[in-house]
Amino acid sequence: MRQLLALSLTVILLTTGVAYAQLRTLPANAKPAKVGAQRLPLPYINFGGTAPFKLAPGGVIYDENNRYILHEALPPGADVVYTLDMNGDIARIYILTPQEQAQVKKP
Fold first, then answer.
1. Is the residue at 15 inside a domain?
2. Domain that holds residue 33
3. Any idea what the CATH number is for the domain that residue 77 is in?
4. I need a surface site. Which of 5, 34, 47, 89 has the fewest CB within 10 A?
5. pLDDT in tens, 41-93
6. 13 in a structural domain
7. pTM score, two decimals?
């Protein structure tokens, strides 16, 4: 009985996470970019060919499944959208899924 309950709970948690990731909405003011190949030390992020941007204190990077990732896990060459805070620092970065890449205008 306990095994069945544990299995049911696991299935519910897994399907809830998948459903949540599919319902992700990107901010309307997000700007598209491509992560540069050069890795910069925290808090700087290189978007191909532009001056480095600074990740704001409390800035968050989301992967394709809407999970938080660390600065060093940001893959070079990834298509992203980002938002800026009131100081011009990056507040949020969203790595785009293939479906979102088709919807977002390229830089």
1. no
2. 27-103
3. 2.40.50
4. 5
5. 889 998 877 788 999 999 999 999 999 999 989 999 999 999 999 999 999 99
6. no
7. 0.75
